Amino acid sequence: MTPLKDAVAREEHVLMYRIPMYRLFWHALRLRCPYCGKGKLFSHGYTMFDHCSNCGWIFEREEGYWTGAIAVNLVVAEMLAAFAAIPLAIMQVSPLLVMGLGIPLVIALPFLFYWHSKSLWMALDFIIHPVSSGGTS
């Protein structure tokens, strides 16, 4: 590489595009593209677009990318179920009532939180791995 190309490469490495954290989480809550905030993430039901219709950002940045979203989904769903069941258990409510509330929550919450777990995972990934100004990671 020539000295000029080395300088350009170093400059591109330093110039990372950092989207403000509050904006990333706002995009995630609205289920929008983390990069531009305009394109929708889901077409219908549980079907996700491959890329942003506005900026072209590819949502799955690498093979196995959604493993983190599965972890976020599981942790949040289980915590919400625990926050509902533990106070009832402490108040010594009937175990049937605690299980009658806890088991459906543990089953339903991962399905209900699915969309936001993927969008929150992309927001967290943008915080951990910011993208270059050209739109590549």
Write up what this structure looks like.
The structure is a single chain. This protein is mainly alpha-helical and 137 residues long. Helix content is 57%, strand content 7%. It contains 5 helices and 4 strands. It has a two-stranded antiparallel ribbon with strand order 1-4. Strands 2-3 form a two-stranded antiparallel ribbon. Strand 2 and strand 3 form a beta hairpin. It starts with a helix and ends in a 5-residue tail after the last strand.
Can I get a quick summary?
The chain is mainly alpha-helical and 137 residues long.
Residue runs with pLDDT of under 50 for 5 or more positions: 3-16
| Percent range for β-strand residues | 5-15%
> What is the string of SSEs from the N terminus onward?
HEHEEHHHE
Return Rg in Å: 20 Å
Compute the number of helices: 5
Percent helix, as a range, is 55-70%
- Structural category is mainly alpha
Mean of residue pLDDT values: 83
Per the principal axes of the C-alpha atoms, what is the gross shape? elongated
Euclidean distance between termini CA atoms: 22 Å
Biggest sheet statistics: 2 strands, antiparallel
How many strand units? Answer: 4
Task: Going across the biggest sheet, name each strand in turn.
Answer: 1-4
How many domains? The number is 1
Task: Write the SSE topology.
Layout: H1 3-14, E1 16-17, H2 21-29, E2 42-44, E3 47-48, H3 67-90, H4 95-112, H5 114-128, E4 131-132
Antiparallel strand pairs: 1-4, 2-3
Helix pairs in contact: 2-5, 3-4, 3-5
